[in-house]
Amino acid sequence: MKPFAFSQPQDVDGVLALLASEGARPVAGGTNLLDLMKENVMSPTQLVDINLLGKAGLDKVEEADGGLRLGALARNADTAYHALVKERYPLLSSAILAGASPQLRNMATNGGNLLQRTRCVYFYDVGTPCNKREPGTGCPAKHGVNRQLAILGTSEQCIATHPSDMCVALRALDATVHVRGKGGERAIPFADFHRLPGDRPDLDSTLQPGELITHITVPDADRFRAHSAYIKVRDRLSYAFALVSVAAALDIDAGGTIRAARIALGGVAHKPWRVEEAEAALVGKATGEAAFEAAAERILQGARGYGQNDFKLVLARNAIVQALTTATRGTEHAQGKGNQQPNGERP
Amino acid sequence: MDLYQKYPIRLRINEQDREFDVESWVTLLDLLRERAGLTGTKKGCDHGQCGACTVLVDGKRVNSCLTLAVMQNGHEVTTIEGMAKGNELHPLQQAFIEQDAFQCGYCTPGQICSAAGLIAEGQARCRDDVRELMSGNLCRCGAYPQIARAVIQVMGIEEPDTKKEGFTTGAVLT
């Protein structure tokens, strides 16, 4: 790591004052930022340790306005295992437990999870060009090692994916990100928080320099509680990033007709991918393969592979159908087994 | 702004109060090994991918390579050296011996600290839960079946079916 200054302010205003200077970055869990600093992918000149803000309540997970309020400093593990989250937001709990390892989930925070950066190998290797790391240098991934990379929403400049599992569930659950900056507070709908690469792949999100995530809110999702599933497909059974993941939630009436649906994908784009039109088309339909395949087709409209990741086109379709099928059967509550085969089946 | 400034920190390591002056970039792992003289905690990948550096901070297992020592000021750290009570091994250490849960032994300190954290977390109910919740600790020798056996022996849950378990080179079991 290159040398940097370090400080530990006591309150949000103290943090914001320090973040105003160029080269300053907040650090909380540090599980991604310190890794990137060791690789010289990121070289902040000043780290602002925001952990003391936990005392100001930023580490709380609690009920708020009939929904959920997740403090930015609450650890991923504490969030996933929180009784309120497990009971009322099993989709979110499952998604968090499908990510990383227990050690990392103990350290990583909710705010940091939103801001983690792509694991594209070219982004991580400072010996290669990368438009996301150094705009204008090129994208070797398009014709190179791209097994992990995006099939939707890509641009000429970048085909990186957002690596989070938690964010896929938050997108499906219509979360809102709350931030504070010098100009005060603002709320960003989850759909608008992460960006597509376009011609500025270096910008992952719409968070502005100097702004700090304070908390995330999730509206009441009671109608989806009984029928949700997070399916994650990866190269090994556990502790790997998604090739494709699907957060699916259904509201089904007694006769098996879909009243509402939510479907978000991870591992396929620069942000959690959701096509609300496909969800709307499911309303009024009977659950079952035909309806689910039609939804998958609509969600994957415009998808294209880059060679090594061509298989994701089929994999994503199958994963969507599988996730909706599993959700139809009923929510399986994650208990440290968020990574087993759907519906408890064994290979 | 002095980038090479040293920061005075105090840690309670294995029930002993210790004081250090550290540069900002010193990780907890490097502090434990290079400054505290506790080389039981291993430096494997140094990127949070292998779990060899796992220690307990305030009772919770973390990758010590991915946190700065200065960020842990005032916290309590338990390493593999703090597991035994005098000459009496921690039950996990004893179980690892009984179940032959190590080969080269490099990952073992992290495995044992991780298992201690797992037990304290109270989320595992069966062997599959244990396997999933030990997934942050890689073992290049492939001693996973024995490691899982050692952990569930200490937890007193579910007898392993040794006939079904056998040898595996991958993650897929049963």
TrEMBL record, chain A:
Ranges of residues in domain FAD-binding PCMH-type: 1-223
UniProt keyword annotations, A-Z: FAD, Flavoprotein
Alphabetized Pfam families for the sequence: CO_deh_flav_C, FAD_binding_5
SMART domains in alphabetical order: CO_deh_flav_C
Region (Disordered): 327-347
Gene3D superfamilies per record: 3.30.465.10, CO dehydrogenase flavoprotein, C-terminal domain, Uridine Diphospho-n-acetylenolpyruvylglucosamine Reductase, domain 2
The keyword Flavoprotein appears for this protein: yes
Residue ranges, compositional bias (Polar residues): 337-347
MF (Gene Ontology): FAD binding; oxidoreductase activity
SUPFAM superfamilies per UniProt: CO dehydrogenase flavoprotein C-terminal domain-like, FAD-binding/transporter-associated domain-like
The keyword Plastid is annotated on this UniProt entry: no
Domain of life: Bacteria
Protein's name according to its UniProt entry: Xanthine dehydrogenase family protein subunit M
Source organism phylogeny: Bacteria, Pseudomonadati, Pseudomonadota, Betaproteobacteria, Burkholderiales
TrEMBL record, chain B:
Keyword Transferase: no
Top-level taxon of the source organism: Bacteria
PROSITE patterns the UniProt entry points to: 2FE2S_FER_1 (PS00197), 2FE2S_FER_2 (PS51085)
CDD domains: fer2 (cd00207)
UniProt keywords, alphabetically: 2Fe-2S, Iron, Iron-sulfur, Metal-binding, Oxidoreductase
GO molecular function (one): 2 iron, 2 sulfur cluster binding
Keyword Cell division: no
Cofactor: [2Fe-2S] cluster
Matching Pfam families: Fer2, Fer2_2
Domain (2Fe-2S ferredoxin-type) ranges: 7-83
The name this protein goes by in its record: (2Fe-2S)-binding protein
Lineage: Bacteria, Pseudomonadati, Pseudomonadota, Betaproteobacteria, Burkholderiales
